[in-house]
Write a sequence for this structure.
């Protein structure tokens, strides 16, 4: 959801930016249309941006710092643009500040988008590199063990209790994600099937694999030797 809203924000901003291009190129008809929708699109962009921020809060700890900082700067310029354009009465000053802040906002949005693409590609590579290894539970000493797996946009920390070669319980201590809540029921499957590499939960494959890897790391901590 957060990704979709982010793309929607980018589309809205491009639509608003097109107004400057049509004015300079003297595309009068298109310019009039864009002028009419400028305010509604601006309001829509502001609302979508706020919803986008709320949606990505759960994964902020997992994303690259540059993604978060560039996003915050973009929002700051957006707020300043809205506030100053309503506060400044002089038309020339208003146009000047509108252009300056719009340019700064465009730069920060482009930076945010590029940083996100790079970070997301790293996340995809981390997901693809996950391999769940088979562990003979009979070789695991009795005890309670913890393991974690962090691939960037998904993080899981699990606590596993082993007794007499049996997985007694699996507690998911932490699971930071955006749309992978469904994957959390995979711990029940791990207990019932008494193996780590169970089938992933439909609709939450990535989170399923991250949770399984966290469980594997926890169990491997109790291996003999």
């Amino acid at each position: 959801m957060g990704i979709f809203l982010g793309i929607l924000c980018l589309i809205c901003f491009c639509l608003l930016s097109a107004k400057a291009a049509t004015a300079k190129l003297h595309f009068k008809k298109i310019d009039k249309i864009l002028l009419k929708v400028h305010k509604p699109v601006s309001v829509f962009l502001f609302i979508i941006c706020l919803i986008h921020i709320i949606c990505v809060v759960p994964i902020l700890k997992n994303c690259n710092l540059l993604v978060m900082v560039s996003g915050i700067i973009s929002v700051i310029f957006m707020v300043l643009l809205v506030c100053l354009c309503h506060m400044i009465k002089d038309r020339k000053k208003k146009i000047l500040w509108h252009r300056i802040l719009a340019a700064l906002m465009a730069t920060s949005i482009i930076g945010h988008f590029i940083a996100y693409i790079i970070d997301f590609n790293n996340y995809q590579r981390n997901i693809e590199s996950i391999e769940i290894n088979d562990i003979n539970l009979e070789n695991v000493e009795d005890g309670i063990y913890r393991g974690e797996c962090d691939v960037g946009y998904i993080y899981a920390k699990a606590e596993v209790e082993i007794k007499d070669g049996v997985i007694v319980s699996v507690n998911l201590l932490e699971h930071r994600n955006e749309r992978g809540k469904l994957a959390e029921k995979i711990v029940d499957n791990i207990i019932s099937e008494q193996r780590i590499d169970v089938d992933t939960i439909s609709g939450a494959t990535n989170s399923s694999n991250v949770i399984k890897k966290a469980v594997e790391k926890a169990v491997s901590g109790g291996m003999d030797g």
